[in-house]
Amino acid sequence: MLKTNCGRFFEDYCIGQVLDHAVPRTVSGGERTLYHALYPVRHALYSSDEFARACGLPSAPLDNLAAFHLVFGKTVPDVSLNAVANLGYAAGRWQAPVYVGDTLRSQSEIIGLKQNSSGKTGVVYVHTKGMNQHNQTVLDYVRWAMVRKRNLEAAAPQTVIPTLDTALLPKQLSVPQGLDFSRYDFAQAGEPHRWGDYQIGERIDHIDDVTMEDAEHMMATRLWQNTAKVHFDATARPDGKRLIYGGHVISMARGLSFNGLANAQMIVGLNAGAHANPCFSGDTVRAWSEVLDKAEIAAPGVGALRLRLVATKGCAPFELRGQDGKYHADTLLDLDYWVLIST
Amino acid sequence: MLKTNCGRFFEDYCIGQVLDHAVPRTVSGGERTLYHALYPVRHALYSSDEFARACGLPSAPLDNLAAFHLVFGKTVPDVSLNAVANLGYAAGRWQAPVYVGDTLRSQSEIIGLKQNSSGKTGVVYVHTKGMNQHNQTVLDYVRWAMVRKRNLEAAAPQTVIPTLDTALLPKQLSVPQGLDFSRYDFAQAGEPHRWGDYQIGERIDHIDDVTMEDAEHMMATRLWQNTAKVHFDATARPDGKRLIYGGHVISMARGLSFNGLANAQMIVGLNAGAHANPCFSGDTVRAWSEVLDKAEIAAPGVGALRLRLVATKGCAPFELRGQDGKYHADTLLDLDYWVLIST
Amino acid sequence: MLKTNCGRFFEDYCIGQVLDHAVPRTVSGGERTLYHALYPVRHALYSSDEFARACGLPSAPLDNLAAFHLVFGKTVPDVSLNAVANLGYAAGRWQAPVYVGDTLRSQSEIIGLKQNSSGKTGVVYVHTKGMNQHNQTVLDYVRWAMVRKRNLEAAAPQTVIPTLDTALLPKQLSVPQGLDFSRYDFAQAGEPHRWGDYQIGERIDHIDDVTMEDAEHMMATRLWQNTAKVHFDATARPDGKRLIYGGHVISMARGLSFNGLANAQMIVGLNAGAHANPCFSGDTVRAWSEVLDKAEIAAPGVGALRLRLVATKGCAPFELRGQDGKYHADTLLDLDYWVLIST
Q1: What is the mean pLDDT of chain B?
Q2: Could you give the CA distance from residue B253 to residue B238 in angstroms, rounded to a whole number?
Q3: pLDDT digits (tens, 9 = 90+) for B215-239
Q4: Which residues contact B41 (CB under 8 A, 6 or more apart)?
Q5: pLDDT of B320 strictly over 70
Q6: Chains sharing 3 or more CB pairs under 8 A with chain A
Q7: Mean pLDDT of successive 10-residue segments in chain C (343 residues)?
Q8: Does residue A1 have a pLDDT over 70?
Q9: Between vectors from CA B144 to CA B141 and to CA B146, what angle results, nearest 5°?
Q10: Residue A154 has pLDDT above 70, yes or no
Q11: What is the pLDDT of residue C86?
């Protein structure tokens, strides 16, 4: 029996299939430290136990994007080793904070399949859950990826495309138990701008930039035990470049967005996301945001913003798509998420 | 209202102004680990809980330069985003060790202002304090930087230049409560040289070298949430280089100085410091030290050395300045500090 | 008295000499995090406290190769600063797991000396032990290195070559107290292959590759406080390259070997090891394994495999040596070890 795992191909999936992803992981203080070294993240709730306690939490949780990467990374050997492209995300909900000492594992269900007309690839839709040691779901999301067929002769499965809403409704968002921003310290958080200061349609240029490095994105990607060869092996692509894991771009852009959104503390919903173009070492990444929607939240002092976060590698801010309606060649990421902010 | 912070300019400061810097930070074991991965530091007191306990401390503290960077980093968005140069340090005192679980924040007071004759820039002097969750000052220092004016027409402030002593007096140094080197283990510390073995005027070539890397200095700088663009953005300078944060050079040189000063455990005073020339990825850094002074300390088995620590990128050891009295073009750092050592 | 340590030379060693290596080190959760960021390691026993507890251990230990590097690193200033080559390892036994909070130190005894016929170098054999704060040996091993003479006129010592067995016998392996694989979760561990599925002589191509980076190997090497100049200083070699610490290649290859050997959880014996060729930044490393032997182990559900782990930088898998019997020029590592696996 062949011992190594070359990953599943399109014809290996069927609707309703449940995959228990391997390698549970216990989070230590080190994950927080390294996350702060890899990204320019400074949200006070994730940086300071004291600040988190003043907001009603027991201590500073693991950054919610770090939790996402941790859960996502485990799915890679089962879902996307043979992916040509990661096409999108939807319906992501952070349901419970992750704390030092928690042990996470991941599980995915196949909820959609559609063979492409070329007959060489197909789209696989998975609903992934991350769970802690108490079997509590800490986050779940849907993603879909284009996956190669191993055997081009394999019959196409019946097409099933899941119904996915454009965005989560505010009532679908989970607010961490006890979260209370009524004594929120704006000075320590870094900016005075509160929920009421943001207007729908407002756009923010985050002005800071960062040039990408192979050593950094590889360490980030390994940290989440994501094993996709193309991120680590300079011989995997004809151009000799190592493709940067899309989640690295997400976290970098989110870090850059602190400048202008310092109080947008907790991501609680992922409405949609697209990796518009590949990113490589040497690219200089910057970010801008657009306020898409606002919502009131039941927790004291807490409101929600629906934001578009765009990462680019050179184009002017606020240029997302060209006149042809396609993403600008310098657009890297188009992410649509809900975040909790002090009112 | 513009949401992003472009930093303060020279005309935004006034004498007596107090800035509460944002983003408190809780220290975990991860900070120590990453500090050991980034720098060749091996001082036993910071590496081993057992060694620290044998010296009267509850556990190994965070390296005192890491504590300095952590406090310093928070000041950058308020003090030096628009700095042309970081000109100097003085009167730095480490007043209490920082332990895992401590949460630090920073505060600065503007204590000096002097517009330059060009009218385009001015020098800002700040007195910065780092405080823990008990509101205890863990360290304080003075630094001054040359900061751009936004509006060249803005009136020059009245010139105030603080009186700064050349060096701290031994009696101004804080010794951590309980510190006791009377049962100090020289074998485990790594060298036999004790306080009495060092002579004023003695110079030590630390012989080891390290070649700098962009990924390393960016991770180090982000770890302390220092956001100055020039360290991260290869498009910020005409030469396409990312300027290495001066504190990275300080920690690298201090790490190299272990070889010859292994028992110089705790930095307790920063008398002066100058970043003589910029440092970039690819530079190979080495270090030498000079014993400037010695002092007796009340704690058992503890003495103090006043040291000059010089980092260079190529020149022969012990060449600090050229015949013109200016720093040699290869001199990177000239640091003057007090350190506690076993007698 | 010269303060800096240039390292010992061949003539500085004598049989029976015991070296207490400096700088004890306390392990935190950060070491585990950083190890996971530097290497593609995913063995569940080292990743998850819950998985480790289900296997009878109190929590996830520090990866046993990380423990090895930590103990090894301390020996470098005393043993191999002036080494021309690290020639081999033998008789390595992991005797107790290392947990967060443990403080390790190292001690070596000189057990063999042989001057080379050139008269310029000699081979030094050391038996090194790593001990925790309870004075318990956590691992020990023999290694030998070729070390330069400082004074070519120094008399050659009497030749003593220790008797070293080709491999440890299964009965010589230490099994951690309480280890119990009888309720082992193969799904969470990542692969279904158990002890009985591996055949002596079977070879496994681990298929994944990773391209090496200077920033990564320097951080890894510093983390273990290994100070050998050649790893950090681009001016140390005529070709301007920084030699990658052999242990970095070992850990990278072990990480890659997860794919095909996910259940080979705990390394307990190091029979032999050779760094066949140097490795540098830019090299793309891959790995293959061969099952050399199998043994039954007294602990419930636990078996042992003796494996050869080979790292290469380009040659086809399973090509270890050329027709001349010498290692292929692309072979980097040939490691022979015993590992515990679920039956």
Answers
A1: 96
A2: 28
A3: 999 999 999 999 888 999 999 999 9
A4: B35, B47, B63, B251, B254, B255, B258
A5: yes
A6: B, C
A7: 88 97 96 96 97 98 98 94 90 97 98 96 98 98 96 95 95 97 97 97 95 97 93 94 96 98 98 96 97 97 98 88 92 98 97
A8: no
A9: 160
A10: yes
A11: 86
CB B43 within 8 A of CB B181: no
For the stretch A166-175, pLDDT in tens is: 999 999 999 9
User: Residue C167 belongs to what H/E stretch?
Assistant: none
Q: What is the ipTM of this complex?
A: 0.95
Which residues of chain A lie closer than 8 angstroms to C210, CB-CB?
218, 232-233
Cβ atoms B174, B119 nearer than 8 A: no
Residue with tokens 């002066």: B272
Burial class (CB in 10 A: 0-12, 13-18, 19+), C308: middle
Phi, psi of A64 (to 5 degrees): -65, -25
Q: Is residue B233 within 8 Å of A210, Cβ to Cβ?
A: yes
Residue C29, min C-alpha distance to chain B (Å): 6
As a whole number of angstroms, the longest Cα–Cα distance in chain A is: 63
By Cβ distance, the residue of B204, B211, B261 closest to C232 is B211
Mean pLDDT rounded to a whole number for chain A: 96
CA distance to B65, B224, C217, per residue, from B219 (Å): 16, 9, 15
Helix (H, G, I), strand (E, B) or coil at B78: helix
Using alpha carbons, select from A139, A115, A114 the residue that is nearest to residue A127. Answer: A139
pLDDT tens digit sequence for C92-135: 999 999 999 999 999 999 999 999 999 999 999 999 999 999 99
- Contact between A47 and B31 using a beta-carbon 8 Å cutoff: no
Chain centre to alpha carbon of residue C65: 6
pLDDT over threshold 70, residue A56: yes
Tally the C-alpha atoms within 13 A of residue B342's C-alpha that lie toward its C-beta. 24
pLDDT tens string A300-333: 999 999 999 999 998 788 989 988 999 999 999 9
d(CA B258, CA A188) in angstroms, rounded, equals 36
- Cβ separation of B47 and C25 shorter than 8 Å? yes
Distance of alpha carbon B271 from alpha carbon B166, whole angstroms: 7
* Closest residue on chain B to A258 (Cα): B4
Share of chain A above pLDDT 70, in %: 100
Q: Pick from A188, A198, A284: which is nearest to B235 by CB?
A: A284
Strand A103-115 relative to strand A18-20, pairing: antiparallel
Which tokens hold the place of C209?
A: 């590759």
Q: What angle do CA A109, C187, A30 make, to 5 degrees?
A: 90
Residue C49 CB coordination number (10 Å): 21
By Cβ distance, the residue of A33, A47, A198 closest to B30 is A33
Q: CA of C42, closest CA in chain A: separation in Å? A: 6
CA distances from C266 to B242, C16, C28, C335 (A): 42, 32, 20, 15
Which residues are CB-contacts of A108 (< 8 A; sequence separation ≥ 6)? A18, A19, A21, A75, A78, A79, A126, A127, A128, A129
* C78 within 8 A of C8, measured Cβ to Cβ: yes
Residue A106's pLDDT band (cuts 50, 70, 90): very high
DSSP character for A247? H
Which chain A residues have a beta carbon less than 8 Å from that of C188?
20, 22-24, 105
d(CA B333, CA B275): 5
Supply the angle between the helices B246-256 and B29-38 in degrees, to the nearest 10: 80
Burial label, C158 (beta-carbon count in 10 A; 0-12, 13-18, 19+): exposed
Residue from the list C31, C40, C262 with its beta carbon closest to the beta carbon of A222? C40
From the number of C-beta atoms within 10 Å of its C-beta (0-12, 13-18, 19+), residue B291 rates as middle
Rounded Cα distance, B310 and B290, in Å: 8
